[in-house]
Design goal:
With about 90 residues, this protein is mainly alpha-helical. It contains 3 helices and 2 strands. The longest helix is centred in the middle third of the chain and has 19 residues.
């Protein structure tokens, strides 16, 4: 499913910016000053625009398959560690 979120990464120390998940136009990043009425309007617009909702849903599926699948995460972690950039397993 598409994701609507408020980006507060600049306000919260150590918090990761979620823009990296927007690979295929599946995330709507709202301003921290966004009101509940504006969020409601975004949701209504998505409900009314079935084509856009379907595109965002497909983008979310693609992003999940490319970035969040366990096999992808494991392969990425192992490549990172083999390259000598990581410290997993030490300590």
């Amino acid at each position: 499913m598409p994701l609507l979120l408020v980006d507060r990464s600049e306000q919260i120390r150590g918090h990761q910016d979620a823009r990296y998940l927007n690979r295929h136009g599946n995330v709507v990043i709202l301003d921290p000053e966004t009101t509940s009425q504006q969020i409601e309007q975004w949701l209504r617009d998505l409900i009314d625009d079935r084509a856009r909702l379907a595109e965002m849903s497909e983008g979310a599926r693609r992003t999940a398959a490319e970035m969040l699948d366990w096999n992808v995460l494991i392969d990425t972690t192992l490549r990172f560690n083999r390259a000598g950039n990581g410290k997993l397993g030490e300590g």
